[in-house]
């Protein structure tokens, strides 16, 4: 699957749909493996840690919040072993246009809270 293809765009729409649904359910995190499995059930082969997964997550966040004003959907995706997002999430959250402040704990906690609030009414 290559970025810019119809398959990628369809998989991206599926990622956004899955993560929006999680956000509506109180912003319940999902592991990379479970997200990969859910995508497979929908017909998209996206390995949990390789290939297009990091690009799909970054693009899901940027599609939902192109100007950085809304919470980042990718905050919901966590490593199964730690229950925390990968380092890629924190790099994304700290760069423009998002520029989220605080240490990792504060940053992620705020993002999860904002996701739950934002999507509770959607």
For the secondary structure, the number of strands is 2
Rg over CA atoms, rounded to whole Å, is 13 Å
Q: What form results from the Cα inertia axes?
A: globular
Task: Give the spatial strand order of the biggest sheet.
Answer: 1-2
What proportion strand? under 5%
Q: Are there runs of 5+ residues with pLDDT below 50, and where?
A: none
> What is the count of helical runs?
5
Q: Main beta sheet, described?
A: 2 strands, parallel
Average pLDDT rating? 94
The proportion of residues forming helix, as a percent range, comes to 40-55%
Order of helices and strands: HEHHEHH
Class by helix and strand content?
mainly alpha
Terminal Cα separation, in Å? 30 Å
Q: How does this model look, in words?
A:
The chain is globular, with a radius of gyration of 13 Å. A two-stranded parallel ribbon has the order 1-2. The protein is 54% helix and 3% strand. It contains 5 helices and 2 strands; from the N terminus they run αβααβαα. It is mostly helical. The termini are far apart. The protein has helices at residues 6-24, 32-41, 53-64, 87-94, 104-120; strands spanning 30-31, 77-78. α1 packs across α3.
